[in-house]
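Reproducibility note. Readers wishing to regenerate the assembly model reported in the main text can use the exact inputs given here. Chain order matters: entities are listed in the order in which they were concatenated for prediction.
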Amino acid sequence: DGGITQSPKYLFRKEGQNVTLSCEQNLNHDAMYWYRQDPGQGLRLIYYSQIVNDFQKGDIAEGYSVSREKKESFPLTVTSAQKNPTAFYLCASSIKQGWQPQHFGDGTRLSIL
Amino acid sequence: SQQGEEDPQALSIQEGENATMNCSYKTSINNLQWYRQNSGRGLVHLILIRSNEREKHSGRLRVTLDTSKKSSSLLITASRAADTASYFCATDGVKTSYDKVIFGPGTSLSVIP
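Running the prediction on these inputs yields the following structure tokens for the assembly.
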């Protein structure tokens, strides 16, 4: 079955540490997205990518970095510069960027040790 | 700034009743989408309605769109305990600086068996 796989499901970060969240899709989608969700809130866009080797900042990119070396993969690094990283992180993909329906992974919950 | 905003924030109903959630937005749109999120999971796309459509059905779901009032409603008929989830509307913006979908804060629906 096609879908999006996020790993790990739970992640703990120490102070001053960078951590990387994995996102892999086998839907052959061009566009991929990273969102942050805080308790009781909607989704805020961190980064998105329309095509391999290209990505753009979303609304809350500070303290995060991404790469898109392969169509299937869009890893997110939460750097030590992100001072409040505790949140639920969701990866999504769509056929094309924009209004097309998005398919989501089951998220990674990041906490601070 | 937030484009779509759902109302009510939380809704609790008995199994078998109908559930209605509303979404209001501020600027003109091309499309509006509704998503469901079960606790601790990713979002699942439910339905997309275009700006030139007034009503759309999918199983027990009925979505309406009133562009003059900049609002949409999601009706779930004959609700089941399995419908317990958060529901989000997502809008694109005709005049946004880049093509993206903006998610509202969501309505939390509890269906009591």
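We highlight two features of this model. The mean pLDDT of chain A is 93. The CA atoms of residues 63 and 82 of chain A lie 4 Å apart.
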